[in-house]
Design a protein that fits this description.
Helices cover 53% and strands 0% of the residues. The protein is mainly alpha-helical. It has one domain. Helix 2 crosses helix 3. It is elongated and about 45 Å long. The protein starts with a helix and ends in an 18-residue tail after the last helix.
Length: 55
């Protein structure tokens, strides 16, 4: 799933259409559009646990 999300973000930056992204990823266009809509089209920084909390 993370690899697919990275691919969506890469294609989004390049200006690819939802339809084209969906075809390339084997997912319906509305899934790609919904994923991007959840963040307003802005990629959030990856979350990391603070070192003081251990693993």
């Amino acid at each position: 799933m993370v690899a697919q999300q990275d691919e969506i973000w890469r294609r989004w930056r390049e200006g690819e259409s939802f339809n084209s992204m969906g075809r390339a990823l084997g997912a319906p266009m509305h899934v790609v559009r919904s994923f991007l809509a959840q963040t307003g089209g802005v990629r959030q920084p990856s979350r990391r646990r603070a070192e003081q909390h251990g693993r």
